[in-house]
Every structure is written in structure tokens, then in C-alpha cells.
Amino acid sequence: MARPTDVADAELRSLLVAAEEALDAKDYNGSVGKSMDAYSWLIEQRPDVIVHPSDMSGRAPSFDRVLSRVGPRPWPDVCGVDLVWERPNKPFLRLAKARFTFSDAVTVLEYTLDTAMRAQRN
Amino acid sequence: MKFGLLFQLQTPRPLDSDQWHEDDERRVIHQALEQIELADKLGYDYAFFTEHHFLEEYCHSTAPEVVLGAAAARTRNIRLGHGIIQMPPRQNHPARVAERIATLDIVSNGRVEFGTGEGATETEFGGFLTKRNEKKEAWEEATRECLRMMTCVPYPGYDGVHFSMPERNVIPKPVQKPHPPVWVAASRRETVMLAARMGIGALGFGFESPAEAEERATRYFELIRACREPIGQAMNPALLTVGNMLCAPTDEDAVERGLRGAQYFGFVFGWMHGHLTPGRDNIYREFRRRNDAEQAADALEPSDESARALYRMGRRGNFIGSPAFIRENCLKYEAAHVDALLFFSQCGDRQHEHIMESLELFAREVMPEFKERHRVHREWRSRQLDGVRFPINSSI
Q1: Yes or no, beta carbons of A64 and B314 under 8 Å apart
Q2: What gap in Å lies between CA B169 and CA B185, rounded to an integer?
Q3: CB proximity list for B207: less than 8 A, separation 6 or greater
Q4: Which of A5, B115, B183, B201 is the S-S candidate for B84 at Cβ 3.0 to 4.6 Å?
């Protein structure tokens, strides 16, 4: 996996670098905010790399369901930021809590970074 | 690269009844203990037990500390791991976790691996009224404080978001100092990186491919070197991944003995994430109904040999096969710098005798060369850890 500084697009890179700097400064709310900005940029610019939850759950239970875990996973909805799919192809991020911790901020940053690198490779 | 076993105590309901027969759960637990005892004698390095709640058929390992205690009495060398303890305080109070971990460490003469996690399904954490949006932060808070309880004399007390307690000395203290190696369940990439930033091991429950594992290892160790505030007083830099394993003399034997159990695992896993009706679903019966129907789909296998091999491979994963087949895939994970592979062998309706034979065959024909090369891997690890300025307590 890459670092924020490996992201090619200047705008996206600056958001992810800022997210990591905020994380290192223990500003977890700030870090989550920057990661959300970066992911929102990806939603706008590269909707093709945004994973819809039904991409994972639509299959009938089978061993394939287990093997399917090795691919891109949907947005981590356990960190207090929800990816809302009110319109099928235009999701948006919404805060579900006011205070974020280190693990919340890392999870959101690393997921967004991974999505950015997938966009860069494809 | 090291090897271990992972147990969920899967207990399918019988076909001829809506509920389990009287002896079913007892049989599964005691067979698991026999398998661990054999694994210890054969030189397997780890036996981990999961912790899930209310996930009928999928996992009846709801009190792993009890079974691990029994395993400690029957073994000498194999390390005994929680894969994992659900740390949100509504599920397990951190003081009780510290007490149980330390006691198991004493009973086992210092063989505990402290795996932690937040709980995966709504059925589980919802059963304890833990909220989805808060379980990760609850895990973080509880794990940090639990580790302080194992090392502080006395523990000064804590006024937190998810639990509070006054000053107390939490006893006993563990044998392993400052505390046993710590892990976190990491079925997602970002959790592996979170583990690195916290200085703990990642239990890769995402069935990663070798390519994925290698990609993660590079970034993981980079973040380990950069870690400035480990969650505990010692770091456990370690990457582990999981696979479903059944070893038999031929590929055909292995598929016949092991494939259905692996498919059932996938089926009931999917069921747990959406469909469960407490006390009323016979998931195994439904699996057999659908699986028997799918056998007709074998007629749809590609006729081209390489395509057919890929089709079958996709259906059976990397570790259901002959020793030669499994060895080839283990080599890929070794090349990807995975520290340890954990094998699910007990799943679905697999026969205990086949699992025991599988453990012996793998230990005899595959494991020795990896044990011999482990010192090479340790030299690689040593280079990765150059510059780490915190104590390291790792069984790798």
C-alpha cells in the first residue's frame, strides 16, 4: 500500500497529506474531515471506484462469499461517518457522531488512501 | 513461516431435527480439544479460538477462555490465542479480560496470544446493545486500558466514554512481561494499517491472497517503524492470514472430504450477515438443499483444463488438496512475508477423523521445510524492525 505522498493528483494528494498530518497532531476530528473531503473528491471525479454495498451482499451465501472478501470492500461504516446512497449513483458522506478517535481517523484515512490508489491504477 | 489452527466450533444443526441433538455441542468441543492436543504434539505453533455470540451453527465458541483453559492443561508448547476477545465493555469488561488473560497465561505457563476485536455482526454487538458507530472506539478505549491494568500497580482508575472504574490493583498479573503479544482482528486492509500504527499484530481474517498479503506487509512494516505511541508497553509486529485447510493424500480425496465443509462455512457466514432468525433457522438443511441442487452445476465446469483448474481453485481456495498442492500455495504466502498461516479445519460436517489425518499429513509432509526456513524469515523481520525503539514481545 502507498503513502499519501504517492497520490498523483495534486488536489487529492494535498487532502490526504493534510489528513495524515492532522492524525499525527492528534487532531482526529480534523483528520476525519480531510479524509472525508478526499473521498468526496473521489465520489465526484471517480465514481467508478466507489464500492456499493450491494456489490458484496447481492450474492447468495456460498464459499464465493468468503472469497469475495479479498476484493475492494465498501465504505467502513463503523467509524461514525456514513456513506449515504439516497441516489443510486451519487452517494455522499454524512457525520453520524461528533467526536472521533485515533482508530476512527486511521480507518477512514487508510480506506480513502486505498481507494485513491485503486483509482490511480485503473 | 509458522502455522496454527483456528477454531469456531461450528456446529451445524442436524438434517433430521430443527434443533441440535443432545450430544452435538459436547462432541464438537471435545473433538476440538483432541485436535489441539494432536497439533501440539505435531509441532503446530498456534491454536486460536474465536469469540462470537448468538451466531447459531456458525460459531459456538462463545466462551473461548474456558476451552483455552482446558487446552492449556492438555498441551505443552502450542501457543493459545484468542482470535479474538470482543473488547467493547458491554461485551467484556476490560478488567475481566485482564483477569482472564493473566490467569490463562499463568495456567499455560506463558503461552497466551491476546487477540482483540470489536465484534462483527449486528446480531452480536446488537445483542449487548453496543452501537455500530461506537464499537471501534470502544475497542480502542477498552484495549488500551486493559493493557494498563496488566502492568500498573495499582491501576489508577479511569473515567472514560465506554467504561469507568476507580483505582484498583487488577490481579493476577500475566507471566509474559509486560503483557502477552497483542493482536487485532483485521479482515479489512485499513485495520491492518491501524494495527501497525498501534504497534500490534494483525490477525488477517480477510482470506487475503498472497499478492494482497505482500502489498500489506510492505506498508505495515513501514508504519510499524514509524509508530510513536504503541497501544501497549510492548509491540507485536506480526502479520497472520487465514485459510480453510483439509490435507489428504490426493486432491480428489481432499475435495471429497473438505470442499463441502468450506462451502458450508461460506454459506453460513453469509447467513450471519443478513438472515438469522434466533432459534429457528436450520441453516445446514438449507445449505444442503441448495448445495445438492448446485451439484448439477458441475456439468457447467469449463472443459478447457486450465480454465477448469481455475474454476475449481476459485471454489476451493488455496489449502484444500494434496500436500503438494497446499505446499505450493504456502510457498506463495511465505514469499509474501506472512508471519503465520492459521488454518480453519473444523467446519461444517467435516469428519473429525479426516481432520486428524489432515493435521498429521500436513505436519509430516509440508511443515518441516517451512520450520527450517523460518530463521531466514526472522532475518528479514529483523531488517524490517531496524530502528524500532520500543520493546517487542512477539512469538514470531
Answers
A1: yes
A2: 28
A3: A66, A67, A69, A70, B241, B242, B243, B317
A4: B115
Closest alpha carbon within chain A to B241: A70
Go through chain A and tell me how many residues it has. 122
- Helix ranges, B199-304 (H): 210-226, 251-272, 283-295
Which helix (H) or strand (E) segment is B363 a member of? helix B352-365
- What burial class does residue B77 get, using C-beta atoms within 10 Å of its C-beta: 0-12 exposed, 13-18 middle, 19+ buried? exposed
**A→B interface, C-beta within 8 Å:** 1-3, 57, 59-67, 69-70, 73, 76-80, 96-97, 100-104, 106-111, 114
- Identify the residue whose cell numbers are 474454476: B311
Find all residues with CB under 8 Å of B70, minimum gap 6, and list them.
B33
ipTM score for this prediction: 0.90
Cα–Cα distances in Å, from B77 out to A99, B24, B36, B242, B337?
Answer: 44, 29, 11, 21, 24
Is 70 exceeded by the pLDDT of residue B105?
Answer: yes
Element (DSSP H or E) covering residue B3: strand B2-7
Q: Is the pTM of this model over 0.90?
A: yes
Are B189 and A1 an interchain contact pair (Cβ–Cβ within 8 Å)?
yes
Q: For B30-45, what is the mean pLDDT? A: 98
**Interior/surface letters B80-105, b for 16+ CB within 10 angstroms, e for the rest:** bbbbbbbbbbbbbbbbebbbbbbbbb
Q: Using alpha carbons, select from B256, B257, B258, B269 the residue that is nearest to residue B207.
A: B269
CA atoms within 13 A on the CB side of B312: 20
Amino acid letter, A90:
K
- Pull the grid cell for residue B211: 499478492
Greatest mean pLDDT range, A70-74, B214-218, B243-247, B312-316: B243-247
In this structure, are residues B43 and B368 in contact, taking their beta carbons and an 8 Å threshold?
no
State the Cα–Cα distance between residues B48 and B261, nearest whole angstrom. 19
List beta partners, residue B159: B164
Average pLDDT, chain B: 92
Q: Residue B313 has what pLDDT?
A: 53
Would you say B78 and B91 are in contact if contact means Cβ atoms under 8 Å apart?
Answer: no
CA-nearest residue to A65 within chain B is B266
Query: Among residues 312-331 of chain B, which lie with CB inside 8 Å of chain A?
Result: 314-317
Question: Which among B391, B394, B395, B396 has a CA at the least distance from the CA of B151?
Answer: B391
- CA–CA distance, B111 with B104 (Å, rounded to integer): 8
**Residue scoring higher pLDDT (B113 or A55):** B113
Element of type H or E holding A95: strand A92-95
